[in-house]
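User: Hey, my collaborator sent me this sequence without any context and asked if I could get a structure. I don't really work with proteins. Can you help?
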Amino acid sequence: RASRREAGECRRQLQARLVEMESLRGAHQSLERQLQELEERHSAEAAGLQDTIGQLEDDLRNTKNEMAQHLREYQDLLNVKMALDIEIAAYRKLLEGEETLFNMGSVGLPALSSLPSPTYSFQPRSYSSST
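Assistant: No problem. I've predicted the 3D structure and written it out in structure-token form, which is a compact way to encode the shape of the chain:
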């Protein structure tokens, strides 16, 4: 009887252990699925971030190119301004000289026409920017 009780107790323990083992197997499979889902989600998120980085790098390159173009335009406009300032100064000198001659009253208009007239030619420089 004692042996039968002991064998029955062993069977119940074995049965309990088998149920526990099946339960742990199911938990293990569930955790494996969760791990795989997390890895897939993180891979998708990493790919999305890589796309965002690529777009931002493209935007940065485009912005640098635009800035270089604006710099070239600014340099051209600055060159034009400097040339115009030089021409304005030359005309101002001519006007001052004419005013002086006019105030003195000794020189007539035909003599003024023999004064040299300023000329300039604008040639924009080409600048290369390193991006």
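In plain terms: Residues 49 and 55 are 10 Å apart (CA to CA). You can pass these tokens on to your collaborator as they are.
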